[in-house]
């Protein structure tokens, strides 16, 4: 009986191995591929880091005039590849993962492992991507749940939050004033009883 070997061109590690073949720094473990996510045939996001400060991990993978990354793109028949720098800071990593969009702010909730990303109104569709692809791949790459809102929407929500906070503070101040009045009334009453 013959042995069959089944290869998958759609597996994310296939892209990692292609970069290993094209980029000597990856082969020599100077540049490490931390994470690869794909929607095969369409787009790949790859996070890389360098073990040596003198080596730019993204530059090493891109190559002179894009020669290294273009060799991988040709092998993948035109699949778009976003190469980003991996970092331990989740805010920076999430912002990088949403390339090519420009990010204004990233707020994170480490407990829930979720992030709220604010982008300029003109960058909203770019950050989300066609059919949500950019944000979906970024979420898979980083391991965080990512919500994106426009700067205008963020400002509206901020105004609403500020109103709610002011209302809550006013309520609290009123409650404290009423408590103080009740204490003073009780003291006055106690003083009248003691006098009689």
Q: From the alpha carbons, calculate the radius of gyration and give it in angstroms.
A: 28 Å
Strands, total number: 6
Distance between the termini: 112 Å
> Secondary-structure element sequence?
HHEEHHEHEEHHEH
Stretches where pLDDT is under 50 for at least 5 consecutive residues are none
Q: Mean pLDDT, nearest integer?
A: 92
Strand-pairing-aware structural class: alpha/beta
Portion in strands: 15-25%
Give the helix level as a range of percent: 40-55%
Q: Give me the side-by-side strand order of the main sheet.
A: 1-2-3
Which overall shape is indicated by the principal axes computed on the Cα atoms? elongated
Assembly state? single chain
Q: Major beta sheet, specifics?
A: 3 strands, mixed
Number of helices: 8
Textual characterization of the structure:
This protein is of the alpha/beta class. Helix content is 50%, strand content 21%. The protein has eight helices and six strands. The protein has a three-stranded mixed β-sheet, with helices on both faces. Strands 4-5-6 form a three-stranded mixed β-sheet. A hairpin with a 4-residue loop joins strand 4 and strand 5 (114-119).
């Amino acid at each position: 009986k013959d042995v069959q070997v089944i290869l998958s061109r759609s597996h994310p590690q296939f892209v990692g191995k292609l970069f290993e073949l094209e980029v000597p720094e990856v082969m020599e473990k100077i540049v490490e591929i931390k994470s690869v996510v794909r929607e095969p045939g369409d787009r790949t996001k790859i996070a890389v880091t360098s073990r040596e400060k003198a080596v730019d991990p993204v530059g090493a993978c891109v190559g002179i005039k894009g020669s290294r990354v273009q060799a991988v793109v040709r092998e993948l028949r035109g699949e778009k590849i976003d190469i980003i720098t991996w970092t331990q800071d989740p805010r920076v990593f999430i912002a990088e993962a949403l390339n090519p969009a420009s990010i204004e702010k990233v707020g994170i909730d480490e407990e829930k492992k979720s992030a709220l990303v604010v982008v300029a109104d003109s960058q909203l569709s770019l950050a989300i991507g066609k059919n949500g692809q950019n944000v979906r791949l970024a979420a898979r790459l980083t391991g965080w749940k990512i919500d994106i809102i426009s700067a205008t929407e963020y400002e509206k929500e901020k105004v609403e939050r500020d109103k709610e906070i002011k209302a809550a503070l006013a309520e609290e101040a009123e409650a404290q004033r009423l408590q103080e009045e009740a204490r003073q009334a009780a003291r006055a009453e106690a003083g009248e009883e003691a006098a009689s």
